[in-house]
Amino acid sequence: MNSGPLWPPRNPGKSRRWFPSSPCLHSAQLRRALLYAKHPLPGLSSRSIRVFDLQPSRTGLEGEIHGDLRVVSLDKDPPYEALSYAWSEGWLSHHIVCDGLELPVTASCYNALLRLRRRNRLITLWVDSICINQSDDGEKSGQVKLMRRIYWKAEKVDIWLGPGNKDSDYAFDWLQSATLGKHTLLGMRFRNFPGNMMPGEALRALRMLPELTSVALRRLGFRNSQPDYKHEAMRDLIDRDWFKRMWTMQELVMAREPVIICGEKIVRWNNLLWGIIAASEFADNMNSIGFSTVFNSVLAAESLWLDLYIKAEWNEAQVMRWLSGYTELFPTLERVANFMQTHGHIIKSGQILMILLVILIRFHRGLRPLDSMWLLLLSLCCAVTMVLIPTQTQWDWEGQARSKIVGVLHMIRTRQATMKVDKVFALYGMLQELGINLDEPDYRKPVDQVYMNFTRTIINWHRSLDILVEASLPGLPNAPSWVPNWSEHYYRVTSSPLKAASISSSRFSFSSCGRKLETFSKLVDKIEFCAEPLQEQGDDPFAIDTAPPQLALLSCFVRNVGALRQWMTYVLQLQPDRTLDSISQDLLDVTHSETGLEGEDRYKSHQVFKRWFVVLTADYSSYFSLCSPDLSCALTLLTNESLSRYHRERCRAIAGKRTFFTTSGGRIGTGPLSVQVGDTVAILSGLHVPMVLRRVGSDYQVVGLAYIPGMVLGEGCPGDDADFQALTLV
């Protein structure tokens, strides 16, 4: 679902763009009101939705779309396909004819309907902007609660990326070829393992045959090898608005069979997923913010789907739900299923043993081992036994979900929504399915209340304060500082290898009003010095011919050199007894804290870093007498291509995202741009990373996550809770 700009807001402060008042607008509103009045939705308990019957194309009206709405109940499993698309520009620039009335839609929706329309038969679709009265907040809230069921029950989810072009066509051909035969079974998105499959789901396996045939033909040399990878073609694909929208995440995760459509090209989701993973091996891609954002978002979606898949299998066997539909025979069938659950594996083992025994006897007698009616009968019995055993896994799906949820929420913060509350409401269906009981979507609630309730629910479900790594100042107006501003992307350091409070468990509670978070903390240090924030660094100044841009790039280059020189010089003075190699190791970790370096990558980066560090901390007082020390250092870097490139890369990774600091205890680190001198470095109860806090009266605000070498493997925690004191976050 996409919350888009449709009509003037009824209440002040609603984040909807609106059209100027005009007779045409009022006429359109009236037509829309009449349309939905003709097809009212029953109460939420009925789990009813509207579907859109898209009529086949008509002679002479190829560009005009006709269809009709009707109300169906999800409980009756109506056949339909769901459309997932981005509203893009949001303006209702096109119209369709629905129940004989003109209904305005966006260009993206219109083009998707044109693409999906059949020539000779009707197709039933669920399209959010058509099937939901977007002017009715009450209806929207009710339908959002059903969203996971809508996409879960759809026969197919058509993901529309937009019109195609030469680049997107090439990218689709490359995706199809590069991922041929990769994880085909997983890509089918079966809801259950074979023992629990319904007949209809088992028949879906037949759709693997064309792909498996293509794999065989390629190996036999009858198919051409895959085309070369083209960065421009992939960039055209991933720059599409669909990858940036928040609602499309849930639509993808809950889909039974998602297919990607761009122009005339179609691939399965499996092709896109593994294609993007394959493309990540090209260095230019992972250095691109746009590609890495899409990469993280795609992995987050697949991770959530796998969690839901494991939970569904663990929770209840599909066979038992199928049997419950036969009310008269259910007691008998249930006893059979329970018997097979308890004794089925023993029976299966006995049947397999008998099969082997028959084969051995026939082999011993000199007969054909497999040419036996008894062997065929035993094999069929064994197959039936395996189908009748309700499989249950032993995976700790809830533990897996808890371990990943914070990282997943971080990765999808880059996705956009027209209304800020939709950054939370779009997660409702997925998280409810995982057992996280969020407040029901209500568009009448203010943003700060929605975000606060969401964060509090995650903390209670997660049973830890790990979600606080997503919080930083400045936060959302009127919300406590421990509540992340989910409407904005937050660049934080990596937290996967960090574990500051390695022994202590989380102890926390909320005040009666729910706005104060009471916990325990160890106050470790205070911020004594903050480096000047770096500026966005462009290309090599000497690679530009025109004077004004060249001067601007050079000026930025010199300012960043000056800020780094000031901070690194301060660090050297702060720790005079440490060796240069020891200090450079810590500085390397701090400057690369957004990713974390391991193994060979760390060794290679350290070699370049040491040369960069030596140049930045050199004495230039007698070097180029007509230049300032910072300019002299900048010119030295610019004359060395590898150091200049490394400098620009580090500045781009840091600028606008975080800053460097030192503490009164001699520690160095990096944290959010809002860090100030006097802020406190603290270890919160059970939280696996150090945090920067700011005292406000007797309470504290969350400034943000810090990375400090020496506090990442439990060194910051005393080993027990002895030094932890009560603390309130506001």
TrEMBL record:
Q: Which Pfam families match?
A: HET, Het-6_barrel
Q: What residues form the membrane-spanning segments?
A: 345-363, 375-395
**Keywords in alphabetical order:** Membrane, Transmembrane, Transmembrane helix
Question: Does the keyword field hold tRNA processing?
Answer: no
Residue ranges of every copy of the Heterokaryon incompatibility domain listed in the record:
80-251
Name residues in a coiled coil: none
| InterPro entries membership | HET, HetReg/Transcr_Mod
Transmembrane helix: present as a keyword of the record? yes
Protein name per the record: Heterokaryon incompatibility domain-containing protein
Organism, scientific name? Glutinoglossum americanum
